[in-house]
Amino acid sequence: MSRFLSPTLAAVTPYTPGEQPQDQQYIKLNTNESPYLPSPRVVAAVSEAEVESIRQEMERKERKAMELANQTADIIFPGEQQPESDHGIRYEQAETGTDRDRHFRRAKGWFGYTLKTSKEASRLMITTRKNDPMKVAILLNNERLTAAPTISEADQEGFVTLCYPLPQKLGAGNYPIRFSPDGTEWTPAIYEIRLLE
Q1: Cα–Cα dist 142/150, whole Å
Q2: CA-CA distance, 114 to 58, in Å (whole number)?
Q3: Count of CB atoms situated within 10 Å of the CB of 106
């Protein structure tokens, strides 16, 4: 014990974060808790129907995300260091950035990766922004994708997906993919690349 600490203070049990007092005389609130009810204006503004609608929309989005995850054979998040490193990023005259808290990569030259899959894949899906030019040359396994993609509706933040059917199914293995401008100065900013079953 320190010679500067009084015996009385030394005998006090120190506070443990997150722990409630053991005697029922007191209730400890965490920093995100309040002992007061919401403002009557908040209660009036949010109806039960609105809460139920929000809950149903969240469930729908979660189901959709789970379905997409179950179909995914490989995924890359361009502009994020670990996913790019894991997939052997290569590039020339390319840059990364963020928009709406999502990372992206785009290029005046080109950029590419090695896709890795342990199951068959028949589609390639990329995520970009609605306002970006949708023209991009994609070489997958050294073959240019020529089929027109199916383009989704833009989500609330303006992101769209382009889903390309592959000319032939890919089996388990590693496949090079490369993006370059197609009649434009830059590729679109690409936020996500997925191989799908």
Answers
A1: 22
A2: 34
A3: 22
Q: CB burial class (10 A; 0-12, 13-18, 19+) of residue 195? A: buried
Question: How many CB atoms neighbour CB 55 within 10 A?
Answer: 10
What is the C-alpha to C-alpha distance for residues 127 and 189, in angstroms, rounded to an integer? Answer: 9
Q: Is the confidence at residue 121, as pLDDT, over 90?
A: yes
Here the tokens at position 98 are: 């963020």
Separation of alpha carbons 66 and 111, rounded Å: 29
Which pTM was predicted? Answer: 0.70
With helix as H, strand as E and coil as C, how does the chain read?
CCCCCCHHHHCCCCCCCCCCCCCCCCCCCCCCCCCCCCCHHHHHHCCHHHHHHHHHHHHHHHHHHHHHHHHEEEEECCCCHHHHHHCCCEEEEEEEEEECCEEEEEEEEEEEEEEEECCCEEEEEEEEECCCCCCEEEEECCEECCCCCEECCCCCCCEEEEEEEEEEEECCEEEEEEEEECCCCCCCCECEEEEEC
Give pLDDT tens digits for 80-96: 989 899 999 999 999 99
